[in-house]
Amino acid sequence: MEEKQFDFEKEMKRLDEIVANISSEKLPLDECLDLYKEGQEIIKKLEKALKDAEEKVEKVIENK
């Protein structure tokens, strides 16, 4: 099975969409909760990607 490549910018855009949808106050509570849960999952992925990138930068700096 092929693993999907993580697209940081795409995930950030989706997170922005989720925030806008929740902020609009036009959605039912259950939909807002589902979006909130999706947003939390995206945040975890983004934090991991940033941490991985930071570790790579630190390794490059250490090897100079």
Outline of the structure:
With 64 residues, the protein is an all-alpha fold. It has two helices and no strands.
Describe the structure.
The chain is mainly α. It has one domain (8-62). Helices cover 78% and strands 0% of the residues. The protein contains two helices and no strands. The longest helix has 34 residues, at 29-62. The chain starts with 7 loop residues before the first helix and ends with a helix. The mean pLDDT is 91.
- Categorize the overall geometry: rod-shaped
Count of separate DSSP helical elements: 2
Question: Topology as H/E string?
Answer: HH
Number of domains: 1
Q: Biggest sheet, in brief?
A: none
Topology (elements, then pairings):
Layout (H helix, E strand, L loop, with lengths): L7 H16 L5 H34 L2
Relevant terms:
64 residues, mainly alpha, 2 helices
